[in-house]
Structures are given as structure tokens and as C-alpha cells.
Amino acid sequence: MIAPYLDRASVVLFSGGRGGASIARGLLGVPDLDLSVLINGYDNGQSTGALRRYLPGMLGPSDFRKNLLLHLHGGDPRQEALKGVLDHRLPARATRKDLDRLADGLARGTAYGMLPPRTRAAVARDLSVLTEALDDRPGLELGDCALGNLVFAGAYLRLGRDFNAAIRSCAEAFESPARLVNVTGGENAFLVALKQDGRLLADEADIVAPQDAVAISDLFLLDRPVTPRRRAVLEALPDEHRRRVLARGGAEISLNPEAGDAVAHADLIVYGPGTPHSSLLPSYLTPGIADAIAVSRAAAKVFVVNIEDDHDVQGLDARALVNRTLRYLGDPRNERRMVTHVLCHAGSAGTGSAAPEGPAGSAGTGPRWVTADLEDPRRPGVHSGTRTVAALARIVGETSLLGTG
Q1: Who has the most CB within 10 Å: 4, 55, 115, 153?
Q2: How far, in Å, CA of 65 to CA of 145, rounded?
Q3: Domain containing residue 130
Q4: Do 289 and 393 fall into the same domain?
Q5: Pairing of the two strands 216-222 and 200-201
Q6: CA–CA gap between residue 35 and residue 138 (Å, rounded)
């Protein structure tokens, strides 16, 4: 029984696009639970990268779009229409005529006919803003673009290029029951990484791509993308010099006050599963987020281990990923109790196959390792929302009863 430990609780889930989706859905099933999903906007692949090139200064909307799907289920024509708009992709060789035809169908009600009127009006409005921008300045690569990303781009332009305002607008239009929050103030930044042998992964798309066995060692948030010419210059430098140059090129980002407030008032903080070096660890680099977590009233701060490994975790086990989380939060010995528990699936073939022999952090401050059956029996490798939320509730209950955190 989940109640009473999570009923009416405030929960913060650090997440990416899909890795934590099943857990988020499970949390949304708890009566009166208030869920804030904290996400970063450093996605730079495929259609998202095309949008960011077309609209310099805009972060990537893709992971926010994916989280707008959390409450949508098959079988309900209205929800199917909402999901259809968010997931619809233009043809691989789409032209402006393809976009105009779709936008016209949405405005007239001939496309996705069961779309709620309020959502239809918002989608038509924001697509109109984007098409007006395309009239003034063509050049956006529309092939394979997600329609939801284009709606987001229109909202971004309509709201004075305010990324976080666009998130709120789209969340309202698509009736999201979760609060979707960008972890930063919306400042533009580009994610790059170095591997342990000094090799450069020049953008987020490189980071999430299939990797060799050499582990990623460092992440950087830059104020501009790494162009092919700049990449060649960086790769010609000695390893330590390359690291120093990347560190000097850091973007100036700030903590979104909405994110800080959600963390401060959370009863439970969950470091969700996903692609660590793209979706999760970069969020922990946000100035001020560590202090907010440290002073949060949360009874438990739980790191949920992936059931199966992503491409970016080559050479890293669960303990290494917990330690890396603590390192990016500025608390490598866990002296500020940034992570109180590590929750891993029993019998996983990935990084979370078993608790390590020794805890992360220094003696006496290491998180408690908890093992449970967390896998969805219908979808191997994916967390069961019901099972994982039940395990989180037990952790909160035990922690509350013991009076520790």
C-alpha cells in the first residue's frame, strides 16, 4: 500500500525524456501527489538540433515534449489526439507546403479531429507564429521534425524567446498534470564531454551515441556549439590543455527559481534513471541546485539505478554513477547527504545488478543501498511504475519513522 507515505506528498523527479517516464506515471497515480519533473534542455540531436540552429539562443524542447505525454494513454480518442500531435513527425523530405497543409488541417479541425478545442487553438496559434517567422527567414530543416517541437518553437517566439514561459504554455495547452520545470533559467548552453583517454564528444548527440569501452570522464556546458573547425583545433591540443580550454568556455547559467522552490519544498527527491551524461548529470551542474537539495526538507533523496545500461555508461557501474552524481553536486563524500538511498533492481544485467561491497561517500555518510524487483514484467529493461513507486514509498516511510534523512 502506497498510502500514507506519499499521499499528498510533494515529489521532485530529475528526469530526461523517457528514462523516468514509467516512474513519473506511477507517481501521478498516487492520490493528491504533487509532482515536479526537473529536466534540462541540452538535447541537440536530429530535429531538435535543426531547431536550435534556426533559433539561436533556444534550448532543446524535445525532452519537455516527451514529458507532456506522461498522462496520455491509448483508448481515449481525446488523449490519442493529444498524443498524436505531440508525436507526429513530418516526412523525411518535408517542405514548407507539408507544414502549411498540416497547420491548416489543425486550425480547421480536419486533422486530429478529437483534439480539445483549447489545445487546438493553442497549437494553431503557435504554429502560425512559427510559419510567420519562416516567411521572414526561411531555412529551417523540416525533415523528420516532431510537430510538438515546432509548436514549442512557436510558443518560444510568441513569448519573447522565453524558454521557460514556453514550457509553461505548452504544459497548460496539453493539460499536463505534472509540473514540468527546466532546471535552469533558460540560458543557452551546449553540452560536450571528454572520455578518459582525452577524446572529445563534441555535442549531446555524440554523448548518447553508441560508445566504445572507454568511460566518459568530464562534462562541460559551453556558451556556443563546437563547430567542425573548432573541433579540429580542440582535438589537436594536448589532453590537459583541451580540458582547460573547455572549462574556460563555460556558459553562464542560473538556477530556475521554480526548480529551486520545488526542491526546497519536496518531501521526496528522486534522481531518476535515464541517460546519465545527457539527461541527468548536466542538470546537477546547475549553480545553486546542490544547495537547494542540501537544505531541502525531503525525507529521502533516492538515486534510482538503470535496469539496463545506456550507451554513455561504458566502464561505469552503479557505484561509479552514484559517485559521479555526488561529484557534480559538489559533495563527493556525501557529507551533505545529497543521496540518502540508492534503489536498484534485483537481478539486473546492467549497472545496478547488485549493491557494491562498500557505500559511496565516506564512512558513515554513504547512502543506503536498497534492492527490489523493479522491472515491468511486460517490458524487460523498463522500470515498473507501480513497483518502483511502492519501493520509494517504503523508503520514505522507513526514513520518516526512523526520523533520519
Answers
A1: 153
A2: 12
A3: 46-176
A4: yes
A5: unpaired
A6: 39
State what percent of residues in the chain have pLDDT above 90.
87
Residues 296 and 199 in one domain: no
Residues 207 and 231 in one domain: yes
**Which of 144, 176, 208 finishes a domain?**
176
* Residue 302, SS3 per DSSP: strand
Element (H, E) at 12: strand 10-14
Q: What is the DSSP letter of 338?
A: S
Q: Taking Cα atoms as reference points, which of 105, 96, 86 lies closest to residue 175?
A: 86
- Global pTM? 0.94
Residue 398 and residue 267 in one domain: yes
Which residues fall within 8 angstroms of residue 47, CB to CB, at 6 or more apart? 62, 89, 141, 143, 144, 145, 146, 149
| 203 closest CA partner among 56, 336, 43 | 43
The domain total for the chain is 3
What pLDDT score does 403 carry? 58
As given in the structure block, the three cell numbers for residue 225 are 556549439
pLDDT in tens, 18-66: 899 999 999 999 999 999 999 999 999 888 999 999 999 999 999 999 9
Pick from 153, 176, 199: which residue ends a domain?
Answer: 176
pLDDT tens-digit series, residues 296-343: 999 899 999 999 988 899 889 999 999 999 999 999 999 999 999 999
The tens digit of pLDDT for each residue in 95-130 reads 999 999 999 999 999 999 999 999 999 999 999 999
Residue 168 CA neighbour count, 13 Å, CB half? 10
Same domain for 243 and 109: no
Cell numbers at 295, concatenated: 537544505
State the Cα–Cα distance between residues 200 and 214, nearest whole angstrom.
Answer: 12
Burial of 195 (0-12, 13-18, 19+ CB in 10 A): middle
34 vs 268: CA distance, rounded Å: 11
Do 264 and 311 belong to one domain?
yes
Contacts of 121 (CB under 8 A, 6+ apart): none
Exposure string of 361-371, with b = 16+ CB inside 10 Å and e = fewer, is beeebbbbbbb
- N-terminal to C-terminal alpha carbon distance within the chain: 22
242 with 262, same domain: the answer is no
| Residue 362 resides in a domain | yes
Same domain, 54 and 161: yes
